[in-house]
Write a structure and sequence with these properties.
Order of helices and strands: EHEHEHEHHHEHEHHHEEE
Strand content: 15-25%
Number of helices: 10
CATH topology of the largest domain: Rossmann fold
Number of domains: 2
Largest sheet: 6 strands, parallel
Radius of gyration: 19 Å
Strand order of the largest sheet: 1-4-3-2-5-6
Structural class: alpha/beta
Shape: globular
Number of strands: 9
Length: 281
């Protein structure tokens, strides 16, 4: 397995390949969710590249850039065991070697969910994935459904700007108790770790209530009550939107029920996709 640290090394390696290239962009500190992305790439593509880059442009001034967990040796070992062919591990100076006044605006789809409370976050996400897609030139890219808003924005970017690649959606990987796998779970205290699975339970109950009643208000109120009364977390948002458009006024056959919850040192996100079967008289 090769370790590539410069854009030029990636380009030269890419030219040497035969067959398809699958790509999994990450910020490292890999967990089973990342592992599933890599396994699907290895299974479906002739070659797989993993990138590890903690992207500074998607962090706000009071967010956890400096303390974001990192363990490159562990990540390398996991990638090697899965069968990854190469890792792109650039520095910030390498990724942003050219200064420009050109900026990204992620638009209305970023005004809901995480984008509402993290202004500029998705501008940074779209900036870095655009750079990575141009550097790597993959045939297939793999993203997790846990970051559903990010996934929707990247799919929109790829379609609108004609990137010659296919985006694969990979289902959220969970702990045995339902907690969505996340690099930030390490920040939870022991007591918070016991409470955190209630987020998923609340979403499941709210989903069933919505399917039974077709009431957005009842579903959201139920999820809010369960999380507020059964955890010590503070709710950032709970929303039920069309997916992937992320429109709160639209009632679609595919909806997303999503939440973000602050604990003392971690902000956890989770979501469920709701497929509604419409009946016609």
């Amino acid at each position: 397995m090769k370790i590539l640290t410069s854009k030029q090394q990636v380009r030269e390696w890419r030219k040497s390949l035969s067959g398809s290239l699958g790509f999994v962009p990450t910020m490292g500190y890999l967990h089973e969710g990342h592992a599933e992305l890599l396994k699907q790439s290895v299974a479906q593509c002739d070659n797989t590249l993993l990138s590890i880059f903690v992207n500074p442009t998607q962090f706000g001034p009071n967010e956890d850039l400096d303390r974001y967990p990192r363990d490159f040796e562990r990540d390398t070992q996991l990638a090697k065991e899965i069968g990854v062919d190469a890792i792109f591990y650039p520095s910030a100076e390498e990724m942003y070697s050219v200064q420009t006044s050109i900026t990204f605006d992620s638009g209305k789809m970023a005004d809901a969910l995480c984008g509402k409370s993290r202004p500029g976050h998705f501008d940074g996400v779209l900036q870095v994935v655009t750079k990575l897609f141009h550097i790597v030139q993959p045939d297939d890219v793999f993203f997790g459904q846990k970051d559903a808003q990010q996934l929707a924005l990247i799919e929109s970017l790829v379609e609108a700007y004609d990137f010659p690649l296919h985006v694969h959606r990979v289902a959220t990987v969970r702990e045995a108790d339902g907690l969505a796998k996340s690099s930030r779970n390490v920040y939870l205290s022991e007591a918070e770790r016991q409470e955190a699975p209630i987020i998923y339970q609340a979403l499941q109950e709210a989903k069933e209530l919505y399917l039974q009643t077709d009431s957005r208000e009842k579903a959201l109120a139920h999820a809010r009550e369960v999380i507020s009364t059964k955890t010590s977390g503070t709710i950032d948002y709970i929303e039920l939107l069309s997916y992937p458009n992320l429109n709160e006024r639209e009632s679609a056959s595919t909806m997303i029920l999503a939440t973000a919850v602050f604990f003392s040192k971690a902000r956890l996100i989770d979501n469920l996709i709701i497929e509604r079967v419409r009946t016609h008289a």
